[in-house]
Amino acid sequence: MNKTEFTKKLASRLSVSVKEAQQFMNVYQEMLGEVILDEGNMVCQGFGTFSLWQQTERMGRNPRTGTEVLISARNSIKFKPGKELLDFLNRGEK
Q1: Is the entire prediction scored with pTM above 0.85?
Q2: What is the separation of C-alpha 35 from the centre of its chain, rounded to a whole number of angstroms?
Q3: Count of CB atoms within 10 A of residue 64's CB?
Q4: How many CB atoms lie within 10 A of CB 7?
Q5: Does an H or E element contain 63, and which?
Q6: What is the pLDDT of residues 51-72, one digit of tens each?
Q7: For residue 4, is it left (φ>0), alpha (ψ between -120 and 50) or beta?
């Protein structure tokens, strides 16, 4: 599922227009990014934790040419699912 499909389902569930759901998604994404940059992580109780981490500079390889290239250090994010999300995903499995 992509963002557009998700937004349409969200609009349907919330009984709002697709445009309002898109606006919600865009604001949520922006705020999530801001909070993670400012605080280093964001905890959504039961859903999971988003954490900022710094990828170090490293050597990579261009898959087409095989040429080695330097991949710059950059910010990335990790997600650790919460107990309620894991329980939901695994209900019925034993």
Answers
A1: no
A2: 13
A3: 6
A4: 19
A5: none
A6: 999 999 999 999 999 999 999 9
A7: alpha
